[in-house]
Amino acid sequence: MNIIDFHAHTIPNAPLEGVLPKPVRTMARFWSRPASRAFHDLQPWLRFLPTIGRVTLEEAAALLSTPFLLVEASIRDLEISMDRNGIEKTLLIASPPKLPNEFLMSLLEDKSFSSRVIVAINLPAHLFPEPKDEIKKFWERGVRFLKIHPAMDGAKVDDPSYLKQLDAANELGMTVILHTGCMHSHLFYKNPNAGSASLYEDWYKRYPKLTFFLAHMNMDHPEVAMDLAERYPNLCLETSWQPAETIAEAVRRVGADRIFMGSDWPFLGNNQKISIGRVKEAMNSQMISEDEGKKILGENARALLQKQGLL
Asked: What topology is assigned to 3-307 in CATH?
């Protein structure tokens, strides 16, 4: 089975990578897995808490994720995770300034990584008020995916830069990835509430030929993402942070052809194994068929990459 992870990140100059010897980092990853697994098991249940409790725990969870980044965050760590989990390719998403576009481009242009990674650029609204020429430059260098993230930018959805980005993406035939869901973490997001998938509905209408990915399937409210995907055929759903039952419900309502496995690696550690496991859990429990699971784990992504000329 050719597995493709359709949502991940990596950290340039990852903490402690050059300080701790490789065997020590390997051992640290091994011993961190039980704690990582416990946090992953707890995460889907947070959505059922009252708002005040959920907000408090999500802020705390962001802090708890930091220690895992000390031992699993670099591009070398990602290679290890991909090899361990049988992942053919990973879509790496930029997040300037911490994860610059040019760092990911250097991986895309490095022969030792280029066959295993796909790149999505990100142009924060406040840094790129006139983004069209920048997007065209990246297009000419082989980039076919654009991430838009108002929650991290701290910008409003109606910021003129976003419409200019969408105009350029629509003209070129790029695929747009939207952060969706309200994760209450001011450590990572300047405006967490700017992530709701429903805020972008005018974009889905305005650009019917543009393919939008709702990253994280709107987090704690995946039913909103499913409602939107039922109404707009240009929407696809990405599975990171969603349990097997939610993935199966999305298949029932939207169809497996528009659902893609993503992990949001490396946050909380061991993300790729967990995310693949949740799709396989839905398969093994017969909530979805084996063919549907294969589509989600890689066949859909492979077809899209072929369409974009990346395979």
From this structure: TIM Barrel (3.20.20)
Answer positive or negative: Cα dihedral of 296, 7, 281, 27: positive
Neighbouring residues of 15: CB distance < 8 A, sequence distance ≥ 6: 69, 70, 73
Whole-number Å distance between alpha carbons of 165 and 144: 13
Structure token digits, residue 86: 């049988």
Tokens standing for residue 23: 């065997």
Write the CB contacts of 185 (distance below 8 Å, at least 6 apart in sequence): 58, 59, 61, 62, 192
Domain residue ranges in the chain = 3-307
What is the rounded distance in angstroms from the CA atom of residue 85 to the CA atom of residue 95? 25
Q: What does the pLDDT look like over 213-242, one tens digit per residue?
A: 999 999 999 999 999 999 999 999 999 999
Q: Which residue has the higher pLDDT, 26 or 213?
A: 213
| Residues contacting residue 50 through CB under 8 Å, at least 6 positions apart | none
